[in-house]
Amino acid sequence: MTDKKNQESEGFEVSNTLTEGGSKGRAGDKVFSGLALFAGCLILFVLFCVAVFLIWQALPTFAADPAEITGGEGFWSYIWPIVIGTLIAAAIALLIATPIGIGVALFISHYAPRRLAQSLGYVIDLLAAIPSVVYGAWGMTVLAPALVPAYVWLAENAGWIPIFEGPASQTGKTMLTAGIVLSVMILPIITSLSREIFLQTPKLHEEAALAMGATRWEMIRMAVFPFARPGIISAVMLGLGRALGETMAVAMVLSGGALMASLIKSGNQTIAAEIALNFPEAFGLRLAELIAAGLVLFVITLAVNMVARWIVSRHKEFSGAN
């Protein structure tokens, strides 16, 4: 009887302990859930405040006489060339950085020996820590002059293609140079995120593909890429966001001017660089113009992120993770 009573008392104590632990756990979950909800709402509130500020400060530009806007033909005639310049520079950066970044990430995650993979990973992460001013200085003093002979050759031998039409810039400060610098800047973002996604591929999927007789590349194509597709898209979109909003590097590499169809002529500008170069001395209507340009960049970036989320949500259920 005594043993039975002792067992019942011990069971009661264990039950009380579990109940107390469960209630504490539930309280912790509620606190964490509340903090997460607050953080999400705070981000939305800050984003809303930024949008309201930009719209309020840009209103004088939209209400002004077109003759008073820079260029004398209205705001949209002023902003359109630099919007195109922004998109061209970002597109060049993505075209260069995306295949290289995915290839490097794939090499680190599935081909390189462990020590080499760790070293390459450190180097890639280090590239992401370099300030944009350093990239701009490198592009302006080293890369741009080095590309001048290539631009001259392109103008002489491929000038019949509109994007390589001459005369080639003698300083190398062109949209193509800016795009190359931007590609180096966004390469660590795409590579690091893609590498982490590749490493998260379920090992059972990889081993099953290899067990069926697939080569390593066939295994990557059938198991790794389907699983990593949403992550790759997210990485590319993050890189695109960095390329669209980059300021100092582009401002240092590009020489401002009218919109050029050719990528090897001097000229062109991006929205971020236009704002950075002119904001310190701007006042009155000119200041409102630059804030309106920032509003346009804000809308472009928001649209890009919304499209990226839509693409990721479309492919999420077919990613191979389910």
Properties at a glance:
single chain, 322 residues, mainly alpha, MetI-like fold, 2 domains, 10 helices, disordered C terminus
Description:
The chain has 2 domains: 1-63; 73-316, MetI-like (MetI-like fold), CATH 1.10.3720. The longest helix is centred in the first third of the chain and has 62 residues, at 2-63. The protein is built from 10 helices and no strands. It has helices at residues 2-63, 75-111, 114-129, 132-157, 175-199, 203-211, 216-245, 248-253, 271-278, 285-316. The protein is an all-alpha fold. The two termini are 54 Å apart. The protein is globular. Helix content is 78%, strand content 0%.
Write the layout of secondary structure elements.
Elements: H1 2-63, H2 75-111, H3 114-129, H4 132-157, H5 175-199, H6 203-211, H7 216-245, H8 248-253, H9 271-278, H10 285-316
- Give, in order, the helices and strands: HHHHHHHHHH
Structural class of the helices, strands and pairings? mainly alpha
Task: Report the top-level CATH class of the largest domain.
Answer: Mainly Alpha
Q: Biggest β-sheet, characterized?
A: none
Task: Classify the oligomer.
Answer: single chain
In CATH, the topology of the largest domain is named MetI-like fold
The CATH homologous superfamily name of the largest domain equals: MetI-like
CATH architecture annotation name of the largest domain: Orthogonal Bundle
Q: Between the first and last Cα atoms, what is the distance in angstroms?
A: 54 Å
Q: Which range does the strand content fall in?
A: under 5%
Mean pLDDT: 80
Which word captures the global form? globular
Compute the number of strand runs. Answer: 0
Count of all domains:
2
